[in-house]
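Q: Hi! First time doing this. I have a protein sequence and I read that you can turn it into a structure. Is that right? Here it is:
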Amino acid sequence: MDRRSFLAAAAATTLAQGATKPVVGLELYSVRNELAKDLPGTLSAVAKMGYEGVEFFGPYADWKPEYAKEVKKQLDDLGMPCLSAHTGVKYFTPPELARVIELNVILGSKYMIMSSAGRVTDIDGWKGIATTLNAAAEQLRKIGKGTGFHNHAVEWKAIGGVRPMDVLAAETAKDVVLQLDVGTAIESNVDPVDWIKKNPGRIKSMHMKDWKSGMATPHEGYRVLLGDGDAKWKDIVAAARAKGGVEHLLVEQEGSALPPLETAKKCLENYKRIVG
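A: Yes, that's right. Below is the predicted 3D structure, encoded as structure tokens:
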């Protein structure tokens, strides 16, 4: 069996078994400039690094179905599936939802993740986001797919004593994924392990982004490679596997001292060294 067939079979088996061993993929925002210049070449480079899948982001939602089919063929040829897709909030409402669900189906994406809620200023607004997610979940559930929400730092900041992430966890259906961005949780003084344990079975996807305290700016805190920040990766991944129901571990990098592709490669190497 060649590499492409092996990786495709391994990924399919992992998903079918409920992700007893998570698929390690790359959030392609990490190599966004390279992707914009040469999508086929970038996907090929990511596959050669050993990544088992990818998560697309923002721009994919404006693709035509014909182009999405071309990308899917490239992924199939590489044996590297599309695991999920980061999707702006505007695409979760009519008339965009059906069209973008079609793109996710074409790409083979399992989860259509809301990448951000946009500007929400009160708890009622966050309850509205939960309603939007539930409506999308209802549509996706019919075709064996799902949705979820990706946290940033803002969702951990309390409004009137209530954190938006707690609202989303309480107000959404239990199959709505709470995609945990580890770095922004740590920056916000949230213990990722504690959050995972409090939301069993809902951390099916996790962004493996590190953050280091004591840097000149919060942004600089994110420019450390996976394993060079404050995240206790062995404990976090163990909790995600034991309690979170994690299926996809997605390396994400906002930048580092190294070129983006080299950064992505080094992060994967560090993950394997730390977690195994």
